[in-house]
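User: Reviewer 2 asked us to show a designed sequence for the structure in our supplementary figure. I'm pasting the structure tokens here. Could you produce the per-position amino acids so we can include them in the response letter?
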């Protein structure tokens, strides 16, 4: 069995943003040479997320509104975590959206259902962060 590891680095220019990283993950899969196996993609920061969904702008706006209702950014004073930092809401948003995805690899391709894409969700941006791609198989 082969194993392949690659990091994707991001510098999101605002506090929150969803990035479609499917092309970068597909490129890593091609680079790995693995034809059959599993591909794990996970956020390496506790205020960011990796998840699978549809790449549709209305849905992305719905995520933003929904997440703000569940874990509003302000007032910062509503969270005990906030003190030296002001990102408690980002930690909660990450918990809701998830840490990682695992996608089957079949015939050298990510084995998605219709409309599925991989997203990096940044909830406390304005600094350099990363996601890990780990592919195992033959």
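Assistant: Here is a per-position design you can include in the supplement:
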């Amino acid at each position: 069995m082969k194993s392949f590891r690659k990091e994707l680095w991001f510098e999101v220019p605002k506090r929150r943003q969803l990035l479609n990283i499917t092309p970068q993950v597909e490129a890593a899969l091609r680079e790995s040479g693995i034809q059959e196996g599993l591909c794990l993609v996970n956020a390496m920061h506790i205020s960011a997320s990796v998840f699978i969904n549809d790449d549709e702008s209305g849905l992305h706006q719905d995520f933003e509104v929904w997440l703000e209702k569940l874990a509003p950014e302000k007032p910062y004073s509503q969270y005990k975590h906030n003190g030296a930092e002001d990102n408690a809401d980002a930690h909660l948003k990450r918990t809701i959206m998830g840490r990682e995805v695992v996608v089957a690899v079949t015939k050298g391709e990510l084995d998605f259902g219709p409309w599925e894409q991989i997203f990096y969700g940044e909830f406390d941006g304005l600094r350099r962060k990363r996601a890990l791609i780990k592919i195992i198989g033959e």
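For the response letter, you might also mention the following. The beta strands are 2-11, 17-20, 37-43, 48-53, 100-106, 109-110, 117-122, 128-137. Residues 13 and 126 are 5 Å apart (CA to CA).
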